[in-house]
Amino acid sequence: MTMKASTRQVDGVAIVDCSGRITLGEGSVILRDTVRGLLGKGQKKILLNLGDVSYIDSSGIGELVSAFTTVRNQGGELKLLHLTKKVHDLLQITKLYTVFDVKDDEAAAVQAFK
Amino acid sequence: MSRRLASQVRVDISTGKGETSGSPKRAFPHRVPALAEFLDASFVIDSFSMTESRVSYTLDSTLESVDNAEQTATRIAMEAGFTEEEVMQISMAVREAAVNAVLHGNAYDPDKKVKLDIETTGRELVITIRDQGKGLDPAKIPDPLAPENLLKTSGRGIFLIRSFMDEVQIHPSLTGTEIKLVKHVPGSSGGR
């Protein structure tokens, strides 16, 4: 399943609903372009909803890290929402779980942005 | 059109349908891969061979090959009786190894191929992936868990492969890299 990303605004936070596979190639490119597009519009509060992401490979993990650092370097914040068990486990074994700010509740996640 | 590929396997290369004959009961009775399925998915096969418990493919250095290597390994792992989590681990390890071969080894060079062998025995699933690149030195791969590397955007593939498989052997050479992945069959004497 190809990766899809759609963005909605909630209280000044851009919530990106991701679905499908974030893997080397199209999936990673879509994520990268989406985050860069938001930053280009001045949107620096970004919440990636990964609840419907079925699969992510090391390239996809790298893209998440790239998105995180790119947003942070521009003075913004990027948080993750609704990790599936697969993605959760991957972030655990790569020691990235504590690097990202991971949320389980959308309303609480939105409120957590400064 | 049929072609005799091994003493016990016959594959119709136009339909992908195959049959075995005269073979003893197999530990992994997976079906002969449907070649037509791969062709429909643009899975470029330059050569195809199969023995009782082993399939071999020669793949182009493309992302499509990565996807199809992953799908093939996933199907065979499922048919071999691995759990859903183990199948996911095998699938991911094969994908990462195939990415390494296509991207880092062969660098998408259309003149270079990737060889994929998947062998099932009564005790384990053995997957071997070879590229024709300059050779990967595993000793030179930085530890992705080191604090200074945590925020790097690449370098986690081999780590994930080692995390998901029971045995991993990397054999670099001047003519390419071979990586051998082993997953023990649940409940076998080779398993946990």
Summarize the structure.
With 114 residues, chain A is α/β, with parallel strands linked by helices. Chain A is built from 4 helices and 5 strands. Chain A starts with a strand and ends with a helix.
Structure write-up:
The complex is a heterodimer of chains A (114) and B (192). Chain A is an alpha/beta fold and 114 residues long. Helices cover 41% and strands 32% of the residues of chain A. Chain A has one domain (4-112): Transcription Regulator spoIIAA (2-Layer Sandwich), CATH 3.30.750. The model of chain A has no long low-confidence stretch (mean pLDDT 95). Chain A has a five-stranded mixed β-sheet with strand order 1-2-3-4-5. Chain B has one domain (42-184): Histidine kinase-like ATPase, C-terminal domain (Heat Shock Protein 90). Chain B has helices spanning 35-40, 63-79, 84-105, 157-164, and strands spanning 2-6, 9-12, 18-20, 48-51, 54-60, 113-120, 124-130, 167-173, 176-184. In chain B, the strands form two sheets. Chain B has a six-stranded antiparallel β-sheet, covered by helices on one side. Chain B has a three-stranded antiparallel β-sheet with strand order 1-2-3, with no helix packed on it. In chain B, a hairpin with a 5-residue loop joins strand 2 and strand 3 (18-20). The model of chain B is unreliable at 1-52 (pLDDT under 50). Chains A and B meet through helix 2 and helix 3 of A and helix 3 and helix 4 of B.
Distance between the termini of chain B: 44 Å
Largest sheet of chain B: 6 strands, antiparallel
The termini of chain A sit apart by: 35 Å
CATH class of chain A: Alpha Beta
Helix content of chain A: 40-55%
The strand count of chain A comes to 5
What is the CATH top level name of chain B?
Alpha Beta
Give the largest interface pair and sizes: A-B, 20 and 20 residues
